[in-house]
Amino acid sequence: MEKNPVQILLAEDDHNLGNLLKNYLDAKGFSTMLCVNGQEAADAFRAHVFDFCILDIMMPVKDGFAVAQEIRAANPRVPILFLTARVQQEDKLKGFEVGADDYLTKPFSMEELLLRIQAILRRSEETAKPAGPQGIYRIGNYTFDFHRQVLTIQNKEKKLTSKEAELLRLLCMRGNDVLTRSDALREIWHDDSYFNARSMDVYIVKLRKYLKEDPNVELINVHGVGFKLVMNK
Description:
By secondary structure, the chain is an alpha/beta fold. It has eight helices and twelve strands. It has a five-stranded parallel sheet, with helices on both faces. It has a four-stranded antiparallel sheet with strand order 6-7-8-9, covered by helices on one side. α2 (38-47) runs parallel beside α3, α4 packs parallel to α8 and α6 crosses α8.
């Protein structure tokens, strides 16, 4: 049985680049909807079902960061890749703070874009596999369902992004042992570069915030080594 094509939301205000990207992605077997400003992209996401989002950051009406926040509020799992001419580290970190899975700086090659999309989709498919007992973790008063990417406490559910779920799973699997920074970066980002290390720190801060409702659970930094998930009871 033939699989349905991956539905991609592409938001790019440069008409020439937008049409070039759409034609390329469609030729590679995707089904791509092109939007030329942020508001149009946000409206399209509400009206249709997408499997992947590619967002330019500097767009008229509404920028890519704002669109990503709306998308994340509606669906914490759909992958988001930012395209941008911005090179400042602060802008890249902000992209990860609002839930980006990856970040590609212009100019870029079409082949690199395709490889990044394929890699993100592979990771997303892995975390979307049906849940089994081995995917359930107890963290103090929390229950973490890795396959559903859901963290629950007192019947309150928090849906996690793919990277948040992968990072929390690695911490759970280490038990009382330290998760080294290099292990986490190689496992999840497949590259232990300085920039990826900074983006991982953003995700650690988010996980620490999600776990704060149980005072007996701590996500601590082990200086110069990595991180450790500690249950004080």
